[in-house]
Amino acid sequence: MNKLKDRKIFFVVLLVFSTLLGGIGQVLFKKGLLGSGALLVAYLFAGLVAYGLSTLVYFYVLGRKNLSWAYSFGGLSYVFASVMAYFLLGEGITPLRWFGILLIAVGTAFIGFS
Asked: Is the overall model pTM greater than 0.70, yes or no?
C-alpha cells in the first residue's frame, strides 16, 4: 500500500474508534440511569470518560482532516449505540429501524472511502 492510503485508513480507524466510544458512553449513561447510588455514579462517570476520550480522538482527526469528511462518521454513533442497546440492554429494534441503521452504515462507508 502507498503511504497516502495508509494514512487515510489510520484516520478512518480513529474515527470509527471515536464513534464507538461515543456509543459506549451512551450505553453507560443508560445503565447508570437504571441504577442508583454508587452504581449510578460509577456508570455515569465511566460514560463521561468514554465521551471525553471520544472527543479527544475526534479533535486529533479534525485538526488534520476536512470537517465535511470527518463529521460524517458521527452517524456511526447511532449505529453502535443501537446495536449495543439491542445486545447489552435487551432493547427491541424494529425491522424498519434495522434498515435505517444499515443505510447509515453504508452511507458512512461511501463517505469514508471517498
From this structure: yes
The set of residues, in sequence order, having a beta carbon less than 8 Å from that of 75 and lying 6+ positions away, is 19, 104, 107, 108
Cα 69 to chain center, whole Å?
A: 15
Q: Which residues contact 108 (CB under 8 A, 6 or more apart)?
A: 72, 73, 75, 76, 79
Read off the amino acid at residue 45. F
Q: What is the pLDDT of residues 92-105, one digit of tens each?
A: 999 999 999 999 99
**Alpha-carbon span 39 to 22, nearest angstrom:** 20
Tell me if residue 94 falls in helix, strand or coil. Answer: coil
Question: Alpha helix locations (H) across the chain?
Answer: 3-34, 37-62, 67-70, 75-88, 95-112
Cβ-contact 47, 29 below 8 angstroms: yes
> CA-to-CA distance for 5 and 81, rounded, in angstroms?
29
- Domain layout of the chain by residue ranges: 3-112
